[in-house]
Automatic annotation (TrEMBL):
Gene Ontology annotations of biological process type: proteolysis
Domain of life: Eukaryota
Alphabetized SUPFAM superfamilies for the sequence: Zn-dependent exopeptidases
InterPro entries associated with the record: Cytosolic_carboxypeptidase, Pepdidase_M14_N, Peptidase_M14
Peptidase M14 domain sequence ranges: 567-686
Cofactor(s) the record lists: Zn(2+)
Protein name: CBPC4 carboxypeptidase
One Pfam assignment: Pepdidase_M14_N
Amino acid sequence: SESNSRRAVNRGYLGGLLRLYQDWHHNDISNNYIYIRRGLLLCLKHITNVQLGRETFLGSQGMEILFTSIQDCLLCKNLDPIITTVTQILRKCYPKEPLPVATVRSSYSFPLPGNAKAEPPCKGSEGDYESDGEEEAEKDLDNEDVESKEEDYDLETDVNKLRSRPMLDQPEEELGQYEAMCPELSHNFQELESESEEEKSLEDRTESLPSTPSHFIPSATSVKHPNYRWRNQSVTEMGPDPREKDFKIPQQSWTKKEKCRWDPIDEKRDTVEAAQDADSCEGEDPARSHTLTLRSLPKEAAWYKKMFYPECETLIDPSPGGKPESSDTVTNLLEKHQGDIPFHSPHFYIAEAKRVKSIPDYKDLAFPDFWGHQPPPYSKPMLERKYGVQRNKVLDDIRRLIQPGDVIGRTVFDLDEPSHSSPGAPGCLTFFSKFESGNLRKAIQMREFEYDLIMNADVNSNQHHQWFYFEVRDMKLAVPYRFNIINCEKFNSQFNYGMQLVMYSVKEALQGRPRWLRAGHDICYYKNHYSCSAAAGGGVRGKCYYTLTFSIKFPHKDDVCYLAYHYPYTYSTMMSHLDILEQNRNPKKVYWRQQTLCQTLGGNPCPLLTITAMPDSKKRDDLEQFCNRPYVFLMARVHPGESNASWVMKGTLEFLVSSDPIADLLRKCFIFKIVPMLNPDGVING
């Protein structure tokens, strides 16, 4: 009990227990009395459940005594009961600290409508980091199964609630306000008049890349509906919709095997025009466009020159540090791009990325998003975790506390205070994250090959840390670097069950292998000693943080690599993908319309797509069949940190506009309304 624990401390028993434990440990050479030794440890564990016990334990050199005692036990599996209990005591008594940031609030703030300015940051250094009655239900660290205290609000158990409601949930006349979302119901399909005219106009239209559509959907209060009609009424001839985007795409026939192939000459012409379009956009609306530079290539460019430019050894001058590449280098890169990545064009990507509005006002392009990537050449099994790895990582953290001789503690990257970081120090990695979807707030070199990393919270928030995506360079070859992301929040993670992060190597990409690959070993996820006060933690007292730790051997010396939580999928990737899909669909069969659902708070258009089959003709029956098709709504990327949703949506879109017979049938049966990215600002700002 807590009262007995306090009584034991006040009577000086804790020091006696430590001496008893040391005596048994030294004399039980044959390990015949493991349970007596563990019994003494359990007494210490109960006593250290109270704050007074933890303070006395630290003052009695308990951390050093227990840590030293188990160093010769780690290789003996029979001693696991001892090692586990000691590790639990050490982790619990590790003094709580605030995160090494000025404030736990996000580095990015955004003034919301109705607020004069963004909320002030709350400091992370206030308040208690201990609570006197804190008790931890510690379990075996390698089989940790901490139950979430949160309610399973998303698990539905009442089957009746899952059934469709028989009645409308709003008056039928209110459906009129959604008319602006369904312009296809009032489309007159004049393009069906004459196939020969269509083919001629298509030839004319292939010469220029369509500019990004900006059909803004008005609210119900701001628009009347003179052309509104119910589904069962035929569409009358109203003349072409002035907002309707023309089909400017040559016909393409797709099969499953060859998803997307276009004439490289046409592609080059299109991409040049795409760049011109982007330039013209800049002229029209400077607020919508800005200059972007590609992140620099690896420093030692000799291998690159030899591979790509044997005729000219002085063409590329390696950029010192992390300076962005010149436009000449980008042009040379684009000429060498093989164009073998389905549904991706670096030219289209640049044109879209220039229009993106971000809170940090990004000036840099991350190489993987610009260059694109191919799927891995083989499937990879889940990572098998070595026995004891989690416990060993916890003990390694404790070693940093009690044996700090090799601890460096140097900040090498800081989003909040760029002047306080010291990148480019000898033997030190260089970090960067100020690009679209990037997230890394701070990097601290703790030991020669070990770095503590801190993620940035959601905009205007002090919590929600999960997504990370950053660049690292200046690495040595075949050296295992350890990275610790120290401000994770969830109780447990798939990283404890075989999941790996993903890595992209620029050198590999330029040698013809542009791939995100699963990477990392000794991966685990566990509670650490960092905490924040109730004021800083959004009202949660003594909120704890968790560490995701992993080690990586980089494939090349002085490479530029990118590490991410999952395969990144940026807003610009999505917008350029839509451009390419629209260009490569068959306009005779696929009705495609792209509107803007709304402008986000950050000023970026949120696209709304309509995909269905063109009616067979302008006959009344065909048009009625078109208008009476049921709607299917699809949405993705509600949570911006879950990029897997965008990859599912990408495949869905590619399938829906393809020539697959099932896709053709789906289009004839349904009208698909698709919001491929419901939270663009969250995706853009990482």
